[in-house]
Amino acid sequence: MRYWPQPVTPEPAHVTTTAAPAVDAGRLTHLQRLEAESIHIMREAVSESERPVMLYSIGKDSSVMLHLARKAFYPAPLPFPLLHVDTTWKFREMYAFRERVARELDGELLVHINPDAQARGINPFDHGSALHTDLWKTEGLKQALEHHRFDLAFGGARRDEEKSRAKERVFSLRSAQHQWDPKRQRPELWRLYNARRSPGESVRVFPLSNWTELDVWQYIWLEDIPIVPLYFSKPRPVVERDGLLIMVDDDRLPLAPGETPRQVSVRFRTLGCYPLTGAVESTADTLTGIIQEMLLTTSSERQGRAIDHDSSGSMERKKQEGYF
Amino acid sequence: MAAHSSELIAHDIDEYLHRHQHKGLLRFIACGSVDDGKSTLIGRLLYESQLVFDDQLAALEADSKKVGTQGGDLDFALLLDGLSAEREQGITIDVAYRFFSTETRKFIVADTPGHEQYTRNMVTGASTADVAVILVDARKGLLTQTRRHSYLVSLIGVTSVVLAINKMDLVGFDRDVFDRIEADYRDFAGQLGITDITCIPLSALRGDNVTEPSPHTPWYTGPTFMQHLETVAVDDLAHARPMRMPVQWVNRPNLDFRGFSGTVVSGTVQPGMRVKALPSGVESTVKRVVTMDGDLNDAQAHQAVTLTLTDEIDVSRGDVLCDAASPCEVADTFAAHIVWMHEDPLTPERPYLVKIGTRTVAATIATPHHRVDVNTLDHVPAATLHLNEIGLCTVSLDRGVPFDPYAVNHETGGFIVIDRITNTTVAAGLIERATRTASNVHWQATSVDQPARTRLKGHEPALVWFTGLSGAGKSTIADLVERRLNAAGVHTYMLDGDNVRHGLNRDLGFDDAARVENIRRVAEVGALMVDSGLVVLASFISPFRDDRRLARERVAAGRFVEVFVDAPLDVAEERDPKGLYAKARRGEIAGFTGIDSPYEAPEAPEVHLRTHRLTPEQAVDAVVAALRERGLIPGD
């Protein structure tokens, strides 16, 4: 903990000019405000639900959300389990990281695998990314929520990720069919959130709503939060598919005749199913290196996600169907 | 971001991160319509702060050509489109939150549309804003919409306003136009109590005075739009007010730890501070300010912490921990501005839920005292409130809750109204003041309270309420009771029609509404006198059960003694000491109780005196005996 918890930290001696504004001196920094807001949201959500759960995707946003949850309820253990909706197609390093988190967790990490998708052998190559995502993630999530009768689920989505999310509520109501209806969303004023729901309905809660990608990285840096090593650059075997650099993470990735993976120094800005997640060429192998690269980069975070490329407005449609 | 910032990132990322980490946060709301160039302005802020990536820029260029309104030039407004339904309608219909940061601050923008039907969205966006940006089109000057935006901003209590006078390029950057709009606005906004106003001449489309001073406005010496946002001092109410922390969650991992988790919504809390838990009123001292990062020496407004106390007191979710030296009020009935936010209109007196702080209670909302026309600011009569209407209403809760008036503290004075059937949020409320304090809780931290006053008196206070027909003998008996009590050393006071109708209530007539108000005032005065330690004898016909119940509820249980002075109508009419029955029979008095207005007899009075069978002395004995039995006055 380098700069927490006291709001005013003396400037390091080597700083001669400072951008720290006198106008906000003595007040909480923007990151401290975001942290406090997220904690507040989590405490409200837990207090106003009977069976809450935190959706855990193994990515950096989930890492931050888990860290904030530990802060929110400290010294008590987490008052809810984590749930990973597994597609069986994540990177191997993600699975290793998940096991580590489960071991160190003061609580339970549930894993759900859609038995129907498993039985049908759904994969992104034969069935396409849309069906793959729908069955493994959207359907899998519905199954898990219904099976455990969870009435409130935390998700790590941020409003800055995508245009359609700028208007998403912090507390987002879903029908018994897990559908999101833009007309039924509730106004959110001050710090007052309304988590009340009718039987069958559930609430998705997004504690990171007001965080940006830079905020997330900066917080990971400040708080020393562990993240999956895939975010750091190192030589990895990749092939090029539809303009994306796809990592050959295991032998399930079909190679064209004569196609051989190249060893390229790459890292990932977002993590998902490995055949659907594009890598970026990079040499950034430290946190500050990643942040530096992100700040100087010229393409947005979601560019590496195949799911958004389907068509404009696709994220919004997926949300209405129950995808996060 | 500016070029030197990119350089710093490239050459000294650690230094950049140190700086970024110390940035403050400013939340602002942008009010205006598409026509005013609001989306263009916000889009340009995002663009200028380099938050638009190449792939987004490529999409923007393509979209600008396809559907843009700028003849193929970049249409920044297109950066902001969210839901496809809106994209088709060409307007934004909800609150969108945007983010950008500069060298000094991170900004969260609540982007709300300006159309009349979207008061709901503006109020929502303003509720968390430090600053309001109100756009006007320089060609059009102040519009009805500008007035509406300003009223809503003042209602929600955003005190710092930027009037962005946009499209200056279309009026030739004419200083006179700017000066005239500024003067008009200062005049108008002053009437709303808005005094912290900064007017900036802009062309959001061309970029004049957005981030860089414009060469076209040499006559303007104030800050650019961005400079102003970066430096505006936020008069943060939350820091200036006494400490409040609504308890969200009781943190009890084991028997050795009992903490109260919540967000400090105002003031500062530190170990050793004396705090009061409301509504119970129990006090204790803060022992520790606990966080996962270690205990804090203090926590300021907006910080989320867990407090432990030195005493084992009963505190639960919904309670508010306050600075004991300056606690919240507690009340169950409020006058509040209600902003209706749902298609189904308000149903007066129907049960709703109110969530205030972390507490949710049952509530009813009375017919509005008036509705505010948000365009003219006129107060107009209203039977209900429809979507996007604002009215002043009496809100009654089923129990007392801790609060501050909204003007004093937004976090403890703002509430939402929830429909009990659909569970949706149907309204927002802003407490003006309590209209009566909760009777069943002792919350007032006065050093001399009612028990202290009572100790000096040697008897308990009480409100003895004589009800019955005119001529039944109320005044006669009350007078005799007072004499007897006075002789016994009991401090008394008599309230009757004569001494209140000539002063306190001389503005009231005799129609039903006036009678109800007459009794309400008497009940309030009686309750104050009870608090002061007196035995109050109130002698009023008070024909309606509801009114007497209201009086009973004004004082603590056991302190209200209802005396039914019961004489048959013919007996009372025959006595007719003031000749009133005769007048009523002749039709000279309308609405006379027993003649042409009903008397609702008490169902379970503490004392029932059938005066036609008792002597006055026997009646007095019965009343005094009832007071003794209840321990209100000493025995013989």
Describe this structure in words.
- The complex is a heterodimer of chains A (324) and B (636).
- In chain A, 32% of the residues lie in helices and 15% in strands.
- Chain A is α/β, with parallel strands linked by helices.
- Chain A has two domains: 28-214 and 316-321, Rossmann fold; 228-308, no CATH class.
- Chain A has a six-stranded mixed β-sheet with strand order 3-2-1-4-6-5, with helices on both faces.
- In chain A, helix 1 crosses helix 2 (60-73).
- The longest helix of chain A has 25 residues, at 124-148.
- In chain A, 51% of the residues are buried.
- Residues 1-21, 302-318 and 320-324 of chain A have low confidence and may be disordered.
- Chain B is of the alpha/beta class.
- Chain B folds into four domains: 3-235, P-loop containing nucleotide triphosphate hydrolases (Rossmann fold, 3-Layer(aba) Sandwich), CATH 3.40.50; 238-323, Translation factors (Elongation Factor Tu (Ef-tu), domain 3); 329-437, Beta Barrel (Elongation Factor Tu (Ef-tu), domain 3), CATH 2.40.30; 450-629, 3-Layer(aba) Sandwich (Rossmann fold), CATH 3.40.50.
- Chain B is built from 19 helices and 27 strands.
- In chain B, the strands form five sheets. Chain B has a six-stranded mixed β-sheet with strand order 2-3-1-4-5-6, with helices on both faces. Chain B has a six-stranded antiparallel beta barrel with strand order 7-8-13-11-10-14.
- In chain B, helix 1 crosses helix 2, helix 13 (474-487) packs across helix 19 and helix 15 (512-531) packs parallel to helix 16 (545-553).
- Chain B is elongated and about 100 Å long.
- At the A-B interface, helix 1, helix 2, helix 6 and helix 7 of A face helix 1, helix 2, helix 4, helix 5 and strand 2 of B.
